[in-house]
Amino acid sequence: MDKYQQKSATALQYSGKAAPTITAKGHGELAEDIITLAKQHGVLVHQDDELSKLLNQLSLGDEIPEQLYIVIAELIAFSYVLQGKFPENWHNIHQRVDIKT
């Protein structure tokens, strides 16, 4: 099995001030270790082969390119909702998300 058929993982860090950056990446066993470590620390893991191919072209420390801003922003926003985190001024006017207080 070549490296393109092996499982791959890319970790992003987002501080809220600049574009997310690549903080870890690997293939095969290293990818499994990255995923396991992320899950152990409560980091949500998103699996998408096409996005993974794009992110794997970047180097450690690189910011994501502008072309990926929208998809990464949507994933970050969705992960916040899954964790019950909402902006202070968000009022859930349509009651589409069950907020547990």
UniProtKB/TrEMBL annotation:
Q: Which GO terms describe its cellular component?
A: plasma membrane
Which UniProt keywords are present, listed alphabetically? Bacterial flagellum protein export, Cell projection, Cilium, Flagellum, Protein transport, Transport
Database matches in InterPro entries: T3SS_substrate_exporter, T3SS_substrate_exporter_C
List GO BP terms, alphabetically: protein secretion
KW Transcription (keyword) present? no
Please give the family membership noted in the entry: Belongs to the type III secretion exporter family.
Question: Which PANTHER family does this one have?
Answer: FLAGELLAR BIOSYNTHETIC PROTEIN FLHB
The entry's function note states: Required for formation of the rod structure in the basal body of the flagellar apparatus. Together with FliI and FliH, may constitute the export apparatus of flagellin.
What protein name does the entry list? Answer: Flagellar biosynthetic protein FlhB
